[in-house]
């Protein structure tokens, strides 16, 4: 455990951020899961929602910008294969 006042504060901040990031990551994973389980007719609307969730995760710094781009690209590729 931290001994200095500043170290205690940093530990507290880190824990708060960890919990907040976990919530955002879980939302992102659930959105992706719902997209992969959605029917061919509803794929367009679901894809828009998932792209938004992934972009917000990147904007908040939970995932890297290029990781978000890679996830979006792979999902789009998968949806195109599914609908074709």
Layout of secondary structure:
Elements (H helix, E strand, L loop, with lengths): L4 H33 L5 H17 L5 H19 L1
Helix pairs in contact: 1-2, 2-3
Low-confidence regions: none
Distance between the termini: 56 Å
Number of strands: 0
Q: Give the total of domains.
A: 1
Q: Which secondary-structure class do the elements indicate?
A: mainly alpha
Largest sheet: none
* CATH class category name: Mainly Alpha
Q: If you consult CATH, what is the topology?
A: Methane Monooxygenase Hydroxylase, Chain G, domain 1
Q: Report the radius of gyration as a whole number of Å.
A: 17 Å
Return the average pLDDT rounded to an integer.
93
Percent of residues in helices comes to: over 70%
What does this structure look like?
The chain has 84 residues and is mainly alpha-helical. It has one domain: Methane Monooxygenase Hydroxylase, Chain G, domain 1 (Up-down Bundle), CATH 1.20.58. 82% of the residues lie in helices and 0% in strands. Helix 1 runs antiparallel to helix 2 and helix 2 packs antiparallel against helix 3. The protein is elongated. The termini are far apart.
């Amino acid at each position: 455990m931290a001994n200095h006042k500043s170290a205690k504060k940093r530990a507290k901040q880190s824990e708060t951020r960890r919990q907040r990031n976990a919530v955002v990551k879980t939302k992102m994973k659930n959105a992706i899961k719902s997209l992969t389980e959605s029917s061919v007719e509803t794929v367009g609307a679901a894809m828009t929602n998932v792209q938004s969730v992934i972009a917000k995760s990147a904007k908040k710094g939970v995932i890297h910008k290029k990781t978000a781009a890679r996830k979006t690209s792979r999902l789009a590729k998968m949806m195109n294969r599914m609908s074709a």
